[in-house]
Amino acid sequence: MTVKIDEHIEAEAIDENPTKTAEIDEQIEGETIDETPTETEAQAGDDVDPAGGVSSQRGRRWARVLAFGVLPAIVLILGLAVGYAKWLESSLRDAHLARPESVRTATESTIAMLSYKPDTVEKDLTAARDRLTGNFRDAYTKLTHDVVIPGSQQQKISTLATVPAAASVSATQNHAVVLVFVDQTTTFGDEPPTNSASSVRVTLDRVGDRWLISDFTPV
Fold this sequence. Notes:
The protein is rod-shaped. By secondary structure, it is α+β, with helices and mostly antiparallel strands. It has helices at about 1-115, 120-130, 135-155, and strands spanning about 155-170, 175-190, 195-205, 210-219. About 15% of the residues are buried. The chain has a four-stranded antiparallel β-sheet with strand order 1-2-3-4, with helices on one face. It has a domain at about 100-219: Nuclear Transport Factor 2, Chain: A.
């Protein structure tokens, strides 16, 4: 009986010791595991704060750069681009309008310059001179006063010009070139009238709000 009791006691001792040892080991490991993240988080917290401060300072510097440097430059560039676009649109619109206006003026002025009667020649050609500008105006004035007006009055010369066709060669806001086709009927006294056809390259410049002829070249 004594031997059996001793064996039973030893068996219980053997069964209990490993269990207690394992529980103690698990408790120690748990405490070690719990403490390690806490220290790591503390270290991480110490590292994040300075970095966050530097990042904040950099953000404020970039904000000042944007506010006082980059944004005004962008606004200026956008303003210039909008202004250029409006100017270009206006120029294209004016050039588009210049074509029909210059063709109409070249047609009417050509008829006025080349049409006159002996009784009204001075009045007719003086009025036509107001449609001209620059050196061409001076040359036309001299030619009509020295040659055309006296010749028409003395020889009873009359002319009637018509323009069957005219076409724009080029046109900008203030300058245009028009090709004008002219039919002209000329009468000398009692003689039968004679007809002629010609073409003229008419150059016009805008002076104020009017198109005026600055050159008149037969082609």
